[in-house]
Design brief:
This protein is mainly α and 124 residues long. The protein has one domain: Arc Repressor Mutant, subunit A. Strands 1-3-2 form a 3-stranded antiparallel beta sheet. Helix 2 packs across helix 5 and helix 3 packs across helix 4. It is elongated and about 60 Å long. It starts with a helix and ends with a helix.
Length: 124
């Protein structure tokens, strides 16, 4: 087993989770890439901070999949920003993935309860 690879998997959520998180963030409010990155950092309490270049790659990939659209917003005297909006396809995928997550919560709660009862008890 490759320890470095396992650490990477433990520390960084999977692509589907990140896409779902981004869809949820943008569904709540259309934002530009830097704001999306900051929201992810806030929501994960700093445990996952996408690299600046990575977030734009993810957003563009999601746009190519038809999950997001973007438009340039120009402000007088400032650099333009690409604002991302969720599409109907993106909203449908978000709904489906949130329904799946909701079903998994019960199982996760059982697993955490087991952990608490077995492994935390051993530490006492």
């Amino acid at each position: 087993m490759n320890r470095k690879r396992d650490h990477f998997r433990d520390r960084y959520p999977g692509r589907a989770f990140i896409e779902t998180l981004i869809l949820w963030i943008i569904h709540r409010q259309p934002l530009h890439g830097y704001e999306v990155r900051k929201r992810i950092e806030e929501l994960t309490t700093g445990n996952y901070i996408p690299k600046p270049g990575a977030i734009y790659t993810i957003l563009r990939r999601m746009e190519k999949k038809g999950l997001l659209t973007s438009q340039w917003k120009k402000e007088v005297g400032r650099k333009g920003k690409r604002i991302y909006h969720i599409t109907e396809k993106g909203e449908s995928l978000l709904k489906t993935r949130l329904e799946i997550m909701k079903k998994r919560i019960k199982l996760l709660e059982q697993m955490v309860s087991y952990y608490d009862s077995v492994f935390l008890r051993k530490q006492e």
